[in-house]
Every structure is written in C-alpha cells, then in structure tokens.
Amino acid sequence: MGKQKTINQLITDFIELGVFQQEIDPLDKILKTNELLRLLKKEDFQQNLAASDPLPERLAVLDQLIEYAVQEKVIEDIQAAHEILGAEIMSLITPLTSEVNRQFWERYVFGPQAATDYFYQLSQSNDYIKTRSIAKNIQFYFPCEFGKLEITINLSKPEKDPKQIALEKHAGSSGYPICLLCMENEGYAGRVNHPARSNHRIVRMLVNKECWGLQYSPYAYYNEHCIFLSEVHKPMKVEKATFSKLLGIVEQFPHYFVGSNADLPIVGGSILSHDHYQGGRHTFAMAEAEVNFSFPLDAFPMIEAGVVNWPMSVIRLKSADKEAMIEAAAFILEQWRGYSDKEAAILAYTGEVPHNTITPIARRKGTDFELDLVLRNNRTSEEFPDGIFHPHPDVQHIKKENIGLIEVMGLAILPPRLKTELQEVEQYLLDKPNDLADSHKEWANVLKAEKQPTAATVHHIVEEAVGEVFLRVLEDAGVYKQTLAGQTAFKRFIKTLQ
C-alpha cells in the first residue's frame, strides 16, 4: 500500500507541476494522467489525491517514476531503457511541433532573442537539454597571449554499463532515422543503440530558400549551444552556398554566432554525412582576438580583411555588404583549395585527393557581418600519420581527437578519461601513491622538475599545464605557425588574393 500511495503521489505531482508551469491545460489533466499511467503500465490510480505542498522539483519526480518502472519490471534496468521512458514521460509536457513552431515565430515578431529564449527554456524544462549531466563537466580557463582559452573535460554523457554495451553489440541497424541529425529524430522513441528523442522538437526555418531546422544540443558545451540542420540528409560541403547560409542565419539571429566544421576528414567534425552548422550565444576567445595586420582585397574594396592574432591561421572579413562578403569568402576558398606551398608543407592535392578546406564562422557586429575563415589542411605524412596539422604525438596524451569547429574557436573538449588521469598526475607530483598512466609520465616529470608543486599549488599547476597543451594543440593545427617563417608563408598566400 505504501508503494502504491507513493507512485500515485508521484503521478499527481508530475501532472500538477505541468499545470502549474502552464504546460498542461487543466482540461487535459485526465488525459495526461492516463497517458502517464499507460507509460508506467499501471492500470489503477487513486483519484482526487492532493498535490504535495510545496511541489517537488520535476526531475526528482522523473527519477522516481523511472525507479518505479524498474522496480515493477516495466523497463529493463539499463541506461537506454531509462532514457527512453524518461523522454516519453517528458514528452507529455512538450508541445507538438506545430505548436512549438507557432509559439517560436509569434515571439520572433518581438525580436529573435524572444523566440530563442522561449525555445531554449522549453528544451531545458522538458529535459531534452541534459542540464544535470552538463553540470558534471569540469571547466576552467587558461589565459594566454591570444586570449582566455576555455577547457572542458566532457563528463556529460553517462557511461554505458556492460549489459547495455553487450545489447548494442548485437543490435541491428534499422536505418531509421538515417543519422542523429535527421529531422526524423523528432519524437523518435529511441532504441538500445539510438538515443531517445520523444521530447525532441525542431523549429523549422528557411535558409537560402531551403527548409532547415533549429534545435539545441542535448549535451551543450557552451551557452545556448544549438544546431542548424538541413531537412535533407546530404553530406556537408564548404562552398559558396555555405557562406550565404551562415550569413543568412546570423541575419535572422544576430545574437548568435554560427559556424561550420570543415568538410574533410581529420580536420572536420564528427558527422560529415549530414549538412549542419553549430551556433549559440557565446563569445569565444577567437571572436575577441584582434587583427594582427590588415590587407586589401582589390576585387572587394568594400570589405575589411585581416589576419587574426590566433594560433591557427585565420582570415577575418568584415562588411555591411552581405553579398560582397559571400563573393569574397568564396574567392578565398577557391584560392585556398588549389594552393600549394611545399616550403610550408602545404600541398593542395595528393593525386586527386584534396587536402585544403576552410572552417568558417559567422557573426554579426552591429550592422556589419563578420566572417572568420580558418585555413585547414588534412595531409598526413610518415612522421605525422594522424595529420601534419593535427595534434602531434607529444600532446595526444591530453587531446588526440579531431580539432573541430568548437576547438578552433578556443574551447577544448577533452575526453572523460582525464578526470581520473589528472588526479593521478597530481598524486604523482606530490610523491603520493598513484596509478599514473604511462602516457602522462614524461609530461608529469617535466612538471615536477620545473614547477615544484605543493599540496596548495598542484591542482592549479596541472590545470595550467593542460591549458598550455591545448594551446600547443591549436598551434599544431595551424597551417601557418606563429614564427617569422610561418607568417612569411601566410603572406605568400595572401598575395594570391590581391
């Protein structure tokens, strides 16, 4: 009886929270209650039960509902089942796509920020954005000559238990949705090898007269981390149309930046199969970096062009003339695609395999448009099989993965293994019992010799050293180094633009 009363109370509280938050119309209380009973496979319910006073926190209620479902064998006790049921429960308080879009665009009339504020709040309150998981991330800053770099050790995605890993291994692929960015994910229940998306909604919008969508990232790395995605499942490609779309997006949402990953392996993002961009309401160190020197673009006199003071190789364009910006960016991309400079280790092609591309980032500065064009090259060599302009072996103990859009702008996304590994480094530096990974030993020995850490300083020393490694990572990924030879080579390319 006690358990029965508890679950009845949880159901009552969940529905009353929805009414209180104006997510459930009072007329829909019975309907929503019965839908929740169906999800929990519960056939009876104690009516007219008073809600708790005060009402509990919603996610605490959600956790207890999932716990009940596990105890009653409604679902298996694995992460995927928890997430699928959780998303289905939260979908009960999530408006239909049509209503979300109506609300969004009605608010847009009062300003783009009013529209995104609504959608961002909805995406948090219905647990699509995993705020509790994101809060687990370890974050700190590293001030350097280029600005304040941001470091994140990504702990937001829950680790899978062995049972789920085994189930995933034997699970087939349905082919639907085709990928994690397809619009068909909207409202999709999920399965053991595909995330739950019952509470997922996408705002539809036009970008260059094409249907695109706006959604938020479930595991955001920065404020209002969003994704703009094509309605059509087609490969990413950086081309003239890319610049038109990016500038078109910031024209519609001037309080957001938007950027595209590069479109080649090694220097590109993790999902190159679906055309999409990432954006958000966040100012990265690269956006605040000053221009080192300006240069004229003779064919585009209305555009300010310059090289940014940044460890990677960045050309910044600025103008109020959107069409001229698109043309100028396309011209620079075309020149870079075919550019080789053996002295600087830059080859445009190996046979017919292309190596040069660009990571573009757009933002609005008052009435001006601003485009940062980050030059990329994905060539490998015998000395650097992972990539010549990729984190080199001596820093891969911290960061081995591709340097994508977010890292390019100055925010390191580091693997979760570092949480415990860096704790062991601290223990080693203090001559305490430790389980130091071999990959960190040489680095740790240098820190011990040079920094003379104490219990009071060791944590700061390690964080600062990680920041220094990330700076090196960016320098490795830069096609033109911050040296006299590197900048001279950069100027050789710039001459081809004049």
UniProtKB/TrEMBL annotation:
Compartments (UniProt record): Cytoplasm
InterPro entries associated with the record: GalP_uridyl_Trfase_II, GalP_uridyl_Trfase_II_CS, GalP_Utransf_C, GalP_Utransf_N
Residue ranges constituting the Galactose-1-phosphate uridyl transferase N-terminal domain according to the UniProt record: 23-235
Pfam families: GalP_UDP_tr_C (PF02744), GalP_UDP_transf (PF01087)
Catalysis performed (reactions): alpha-D-galactose 1-phosphate + UDP-alpha-D-glucose = alpha-D-glucose 1-phosphate + UDP-alpha-D-galactose
Record GO terms (molecular function): UDP-glucose:hexose-1-phosphate uridylyltransferase activity
Sorted UniProt keywords: Carbohydrate metabolism, Cytoplasm, Galactose metabolism, Nucleotidyltransferase, Transferase
Record pathway: Carbohydrate metabolism; galactose metabolism
Residue span(s) of domain Galactose-1-phosphate uridyl transferase C-terminal: 251-444
EC number(s) reported in the record: 2.7.7.12
PANTHER family from the UniProt entry: DUF4922 DOMAIN-CONTAINING PROTEIN, GALACTOSE-1-PHOSPHATE URIDYLYLTRANSFERASE
Family: Belongs to the galactose-1-phosphate uridylyltransferase type 2 family.
Protein name: Galactose-1-phosphate uridylyltransferase
Origin species: Carnobacterium antarcticum
Gene name, Swiss-Prot/TrEMBL: galT
